[in-house]
Amino acid sequence: MTDHSFVRTEMLPEQPAPLGETGILLWLKTNMFSGIANSIASVVTIVIIYILAKEIILWGYQPSWGLGSVRACFDDPNVTGACWGVIPERFNQLMYGFYPKDEQWRINLSFFLMVAAIAPVLFNKIPRKAIYFSLLYPFIAFWLIWGDSIWGPIAALAGFAIAYGAIRVLNPVAGAIVGITTGVLLALVWWLFAAVPASVIVNGVIPIELEVVQSRNIGGLTLSVIIGISGIALSFPIGVILALGRQSDMFIVKVLCVGFIEFIRGVPLITLLFVASILLNYFLPPGTSFDLLLRVVIVVTLFSAAYLAEVVRGGLAALPTGQYEAADALGLDYWKSMRLIIMPQALKISIPGIVSNFIGLFKDTTLVSIIGLLDPVGLINAIRGTAEWKGILWELYIFLALMFWIFTFAMSRYSMYLERKLKTGH
Amino acid sequence: MAMADQNAGPTFRLSMLIYDTRYRSLTIQVIVLIGFMAGGVWLVNNMLNNLSDLGKDLGFGFLNDAAGFEISPQLIEFSSQDSNLRAAIVGMLNTLMVAVVGCIIATIIGVIVGIARLSKNWVVARLMTVYVEMFRNVPILLWIVFAIAIINDIFPVPRAFKGDSATASMLFNESVALTNRGFYVPSPIWLQGSMVVVIVFILSLVAIKFFGTWSKKRQEATGDILPNFWIKLGIFVVPAVLIYFIMGRPIELDYPAFVKFNFEGGLFIRAPFIAITMALALYTAAFIAEAVRSGIQAISKGQSEAAFALGLRPNRTMQLIILPQALRVIIPPLISQFLNLTKNSSLATAVGYIEITGTLGGTILNQTGREMECIMLLMLIYLSISLSISMVMNVYNNSVKLKER
Predict the structure, then answer these.
(1) Is the confidence at residue A426, as pLDDT, over 60?
(2) Using the beta-carbon criterion (under 8 Å), do B375 and A275 form an inter-chain contact?
(3) What was the pLDDT predicted at A240?
(4) Under an 8 A CB cutoff, do B122 and A401 touch?
(5) Is the pLDDT of residue A416 over 60?
(6) pLDDT tens digits, residue range B223-243?
């Protein structure tokens, strides 16, 4: 009998997948052309992007980086769009404002030191000891930027040392309350009465001085960074304390905190800046007047602290009550339970909010141009007012927007990194 | 005995004010209160001293003086003879106008962008991401000055529309002119009988509301779903249009036209208003988009899978299952974005749109020299606007909140 049934005995060679089911075509099909509506949307979007990109590149790609004035751009037949010469020519001003040319290394140095000072706060791979440098940094930066005798900041620092020493000595002997009170009082006495004469005397013996630079000469991105960074650093502790105050059982403390937070959050920053520039001197004893930049930093700090307090409060409210009860059950007092149990968890929850708050603060530093400080936005008008750059606009706006974008985008990426790092869930 | 001694002696000692937790909070509160009041008294005292040194007094009489300056746009009648108070109110109305228009545009764009960011279409999702990151990470002040520069640079001067040698042309059948000073659009003329049309239109809105409740009740009773959207659209359009023609077209449009030196007729929307509103709306929309996206993503995937398992189609899943739940997450950040937009409208001074900061905190302050009163009043007005917005929105928030036991 012959076997009529047909059974293939050998395997067929593997065929490649159909053209539309692999690689880029499959990707295009699923992600861009998966239906009629989707295809239309893709095509329309691509056309829009193409038109915009073409216009922007045609306008922006110009051999005008070396030209020295609007006139030169206008006369140059090769330049048909952007006049980029303003950026290299005014770069210095946009970065440092009217800071004296020969002293600008001080700004650069304090910027690099700032990176070194912030690093231990941001990343935990760096040795913990480096945090001491971060604590010293504000004094170093103040001296570098504003100049004058080095003994001024050192005398200010000595006040903290005195307070710390007094607390360390008195705490075991007389108890925490007496120790802290004495320490704070000693430091206040030192700052108010002894610090200035002491620094003058020491400077007479060992003069270490830098040329004094007035606040009004500080401008450009430097100004934004100074206001932004000091606002961020100072508003964080104040914000946390306000949040705790708002959650407090003590009625009066709670009412004061709520009142402060709601007041600040209810008014625009610009009105508070008006207060700083016009009204603040009215509320101080007659004759006292301090630096506008310092007043702005104070106001920006308070403004940011109120918003931060709300973010942290959200984090506190999100914690289960069990955490508070567990801390109490362990016998921890209020501050210990906050420091060891509650805050680490609450702050972790509120990281995205905190960082976006800081981003907002950094962006809001541009508002100081309205009260006449020369931040980058304020400098645009100064530059446009000169004869050689009359009427120039887009190039400066795009440059500034890009500058701010880099800073704030970096901050938002850092917040994502931090969230991932601190994630302990499954 | 020791036990008895402890129970018998609740004598109050002064040190208990610090060391006994029952009294310590009282001590702290009293100290805080005294400190606060002392600080307040010190500040007010300084202020009064400083003011009297300058020969000024504290008073709001200046609000009744003639303002002596012009404001445009003005929602209520205002001339330079009117009082400062009226100037401030005109400014406040201008603030509110920017806030309301801005919030509406921002919500529409924000919701669309937020949903489009989650689209399966790669190009669309990427484009929306670029939009959001671009607007969120650049200061609002830059966007505002950017916006006015765009209008001033891109659109032609009104003269370009002139006569036969026009270099620019009007859009939409000669009815809209986009110039660098602002946009001219047709404005309605209300003729005799137009009230009837308006009333019918309002009635049809009420009818839509009633129809919505009725159709929902019907669906819950019978399970039958009506084509709600089309019926509502019909109620919205048909009666008003019918009455409009029955009454003999009582509403006409006044078209802008170029006469001699400038446009006449129609409605003139000034460039500063467009710039500030669009900049605020686009900027805030980026934040709203993020709120919408995270709100939708916060709804667990099981919800949409359950809806699909029930046999609901994607758009009904979105409408009936996802959105009602996502709304609860979206509303609180939305409220704070509306508040931010309102407060950011104070930056309108940067483009010359005159609102409350421009009047009370600008011209009036400079003319009267009463910075203390002006800025206090300015803050008070902003505070009350903010508090009323958050109050209204909180009422709404409570109505969509999850009803728990």
Answers:
(1) no
(2) yes
(3) 93
(4) no
(5) yes
(6) 777 777 788 888 888 877 887
- Contact list, A279 vs chain B (CB under 8 Å): 371-372, 375
At B317-350, the pLDDT tens digits run 888 888 888 888 888 888 889 999 999 999 988 8
A residues 335-354 lying closer than 8 A (beta carbon) to B: none
Find the CB nearest A404 among B33, B138, B344. B138
Query: Which residue of A32, A270, A359 is in closest CB contact with B123?
Result: A32
pLDDT above 90 for A34: no
Q: How far apart are CA A419 and CA B249, in angstroms?
A: 62
Nearest CA in chain B to A249: B25
DSSP state of A15: P
Mean pLDDT of B100-117: 92
Burial B335-371 (b: 16+ CB within 10 A, else e): bbbbbbbbbbbbbbbbbebbbbbbbbbbbbbebbebb
Residues 12-41 on A with a CB inside 8 Å of B are: 30-32, 34, 38, 41
| Chain B contacts in chain A segment 46-75 (CB below 8 A) | 46, 49
Tokens at residue B192, please? 């005799």
Q: Which strand (E) or helix (H) includes residue A404? A: helix A394-422
Q: Which residue of B has its CA nearest to A377?
A: B142
Which top CATH class is B84-180+271-400? mainly alpha
CB-based contact A397 B145, cutoff 8 Å: yes
Locate the DSSP E strands across A298-371: none
> Closest Cα to residue A227, out of A352, A339, A375, A19?
A375
The alpha helices in B137-246, defined as continuous H runs, are 140-154, 194-222, 228-246
d(CA A134, CA A156): 16
Amino acid B213 reads T
Compute CA distances A231 → A118, A241, A291, A295, A404, whole Å.
14, 16, 16, 11, 17
d(CA A78, CA B19): 82
Backbone φ, ψ for residue A150 (5° rounding):
-70, -20
CB-based contact A401 B149, cutoff 8 Å? no
pLDDT tens, A98-111? 888 888 888 888 88
Is residue B124 left, alpha or beta, with left meaning phi > 0 and alpha meaning psi from -120 to 50? Answer: alpha
The residue in chain A having the minimum alpha-carbon distance to the alpha carbon of residue B366 is A278
- The interface pTM score, or ipTM, of the predicted complex is 0.84
Residue A49 to residue B127, Cβ atoms within 8 A = yes
Measured distance CA(A121)–CA(A113) in Å, rounded: 13
Structure confidence by residue, pLDDT tens digits, A320-348: 888 889 998 998 888 889 889 888 888 88
Chain B contact for A289 (CB, 8 A cutoff)? no
Q: Which helix (H) or strand (E) holds B185?
A: strand B182-185
Q: With beta carbons under 8 A apart, name residues in chain B contacting A359.
A: 136-137
B298-301: long-range pairs with CB below 8 Å, 24+: B298/B326, B298/B329, B299/B325, B299/B326, B299/B329
- Strand segments (E) across A70-142: none
Instruction: Please state the domain extents for chain B.
Output: 84-180+271-400, 187-254
b/e sequence A284-307, b meaning 16+ C-beta within 10 Å: eeeeeeeebbebbbbbbbbbbbbb
Domains and CATH numbers, chain A: 26-75 (no CATH), 89-99+215-422 (1.10.3720.10), 148-210 (no CATH)
Counted across chains A and B, CB pairs separated by less than 8 A come out at 147
Question: Is the distance from CB of B114 to CB of B290 less than 8 angstroms?
Answer: yes
Measured CA to CA, the distance from residue B280 to residue B102 in angstroms comes to 6
Q: Reduced to 3 states, what is the DSSP secondary structure of residue B178?
A: strand
In chain A, what is the straight-line distance between the N-terminal and C-terminal CA atoms, in Å?
67
Kindly state the average pLDDT of the residues B87-110. 92
